[in-house]
Amino acid sequence: MPTPSTLIVGAAGAVGKRLCAALSAQGTRVIASDRMADLPGSLKRVVASAGGTSVGNVDVCDPEALNQLFKEHADENTTVWNLAAPLSVETAMDPAVAEAVTVGGMGNVLDAMSLVGARKICFTDSIGSFGAEAPRNGATARWLTENPGQDPGSDYGLQKRGCRDLMAKFAKDFGGDPRFAVLPGVLHSEPIWGNGTTEYALDALLAAPHQQTKHALPTMDAYICPVDPDVRLPMVFVDDLMRGLIALQEADESKLTEPQHGYCVPGLSFTPNELFAEIRKHHAGFGFR
After folding, report:
1. How far apart are CA 93 and CA 53, in angstroms?
2. Where are the domains of the chain?
3. CATH 3.20.20.150 fits 5-183+236-266, yes or no
4. Where are the alpha helices (DSSP H) in the chain?
């Protein structure tokens, strides 16, 4: 029997690189693919360490390239992660392009899976899928599936819902095993991660040691916070996120009892004001505006 493998589409992205490393560290053979012609050397080395391989120049908007990737590197034992999608800010800037990549790309990935008999597809959804009607506390992925007509308030959220709909159809028509994780903001120590809304937290932490102000009042060199200081957002530390994603991937299908096998990744929630108060314990002059 062929050795089970994990094929990650969009492997050179922020979550993709960390997931490749986490899976490879536990001995999983990873096929890392991305639209980049040449994947980063660090990514190539980490997947090669566990017998995996890297494949560049594979765009989710190119069905032929995807089909070839799956024919060469996937079979019925392969788990697929589709991580190819613009961030929320990028989606807002060009919704049409984002739609082609996020929803069109998911359709192409599922078609390629059906060609080789792969069943398990994992997907990263987002807190951006929850709109104004969603509960402010204790929101679950089940709420999303039970309220399919809710307005998420953005093209980003609508496109995530489009992907969930495609995966549900894949389960119904092909007996697929789709799973999705709803991600909060990700706390990490990478100097560059992405351009999402929750990146304000890292930006503030990086800015604090370099401020010249001697008092905690808004100044010209104060950190400019793009989020209302009293808005509470859920977060998760990146290492905990990786453990959660791998747990979702490896869970026995019979144990996944939530609708569409969707689960919110738990973490912690705080407001910018709460974060800034903690920063001032270490950098008393930290100011923002």
Report:
1. 34
2. 5-183+236-266, 187-231+272-280
3. no
4. 14-25, 41-48, 63-73, 88-93, 95-99, 105-116, 141-146, 155-174, 200-207, 238-250, 272-280
Rounded CA separation 279/271 (Å): 13
- How far, in Å, CA of 159 to CA of 161, rounded? 5
Question: Quick count: other Cβ atoms within 10 Å of Cβ 151?
Answer: 11
Listed residue (156, 148, 157, 168) closest to 107, CA to CA: 168
Tens of pLDDT, residue by residue over 57-89, are 999 999 999 999 999 999 999 999 999 999 888
Q: How far apart are CA 269 and CA 55, in angstroms?
A: 37
Max Cα–Cα distance, the chain, nearest Å: 66
Strand partners, 236: 186
96: CB partners within 8 A, 6+ apart: none
Residue-wise pLDDT for 12-63, tens only, equals 998 999 999 999 999 999 999 999 999 999 999 999 999 999 999 999 999 9
Task: Characterize the bridge pairing of strands 233-237 and 29-33.
Answer: unpaired
Tokens of 63: 């069905």
CB-count burial class (<10 Å; 0-12, 13-18, 19+) for 137: exposed
Closest to 96 (Cα-Cα) out of 53, 158, 179: 158
CB 102 within 8 A of CB 28: no
Distance between CA atoms of residues 87 and 78, nearest Å: 26
CB 242 within 8 A of CB 18: yes
CB-CB contact of 39 with 54 (8 Å): yes
